[in-house]
Amino acid sequence: GFFFSVLINLLTDSYTFLFLPILLISSILFYLVLLFLAIIYCRIFTALLKQKTGIFPNTSIVQLIRITSDVLTSYLVTPLHPSMPFLIPFMGAKVGKGFIFTGKIFNADLLEAGSNVLVGEDAFLTCHLQYENKLILGKIRIGNDVVIGLRSVVMPNVEICDGAIVAAGAI
Questions:
Q1: Which of 4, 55, 87, 115 gets the highest tally of CB atoms within 10 A of its CB?
Q2: Would you call 130 helix, strand, or coil by DSSP?
Q3: Is 102 exposed, middle or buried (0-12, 13-18, 19+ CB in 10 A)?
């Protein structure tokens, strides 16, 4: 109806095509600014928390900061699969050479991964767990030459030894 007629009028108007590149460039710049702010936010608050691990009350400020950091990481950084090895260290993770990541990570500052690590598509690495009104934070340590299969889940306080293969869909 009305929406499609307006869309067709906009697309047939010769001036519209002049504004499309400006719109595209401004959208990309806006996304990059959001990404930069998300990285700065996560770095500041994780530095203030000093990578505390343990069990925290469900109503603590730690939980609020972690949830906000997770949302920013999940929705701004994770969709950039090709640049994830470049961006994950900026989120606080310690990763070695040859780190390939196409999954999703929460609390990147608590991740330590060796070299030649492959994390498969839609794999989920989370360094926190909500359990009985408590927030559990723990590190994930991944050794060298490790493959984590697609859609697998790695929880807090897990250590994956050198040369391990985590099956697809494993928890």
A1: 87
A2: strand
A3: middle
